[in-house]
Amino acid sequence: MDQIKLNIFPATIFPPLHICSSLVRVDEITIDVHEHYVKKSYRNRYDILGPNGVHTLSISLIKGKNAQLPMREVRIANHQNWQQRHYKSIKAAYGNAPYYDHFIDEIQPLFHTKFNFLVDFNIISLQSILKCLSLSNEINKTERYYTSEEIQHADIRNAFHSDRNQLSKSPGQQKYIQVFSDRFEFEPNLSILDLLFCKGPESLSYLTQI
Question: Is residue 2 part of a domain?
Answer without folding.
Answer: no
